[in-house]
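Issue 218. Parser rejects a valid record. Input:
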Amino acid sequence: MKFNGRAFVFGDDIDTDAIIPARYLNTTDPAALAAHAMEDADPAFAQKVKAGDVIVAGKNFGCGSSREHAPVAIRAAGVGVVAAKSFARIFYRNAFNTGLILVECPEAGTGFADEEAVEVDLSAGTVTNQTTGKVYAFEPIPAFMLELASDGGLIPHLMKKRAASSR
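Output the parser choked on:
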């Protein structure tokens, strides 16, 4: 599976309040959350991001509260994958549970400028800056985690498994 798009670069310690500000937590509607994704970190993000684009970030992306709204907002905005030096553990789990794919790639966090062309190849375990030609490797995501995310998250995944077992 590959994702091709533009890189949206964020630094270290991007917390869930920067991903989706608390003032928008009165809804769980993915489209409404997407309209405000990353608003406090980059007010124009939701208007600029397109399907398949990639967030590239520093360490501890998704720190802060355990709200599931944060990965839902990012995914609903069209982000295909987030590549960061590291992730807050609860955000990491919430992301896969809501269908957002994350890759831990320490070198990629400093290898991009905003809106440079990026390709994330999950099979090859690479993040490529297509503008500069630099390639960064990451540890492969376990197959069961990719299946979970590909199914749209934990609930759709379990529904799929249940339907398959009832045949």
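Fixed in the parser; the record now loads. The longest strand covers residues 2-9.
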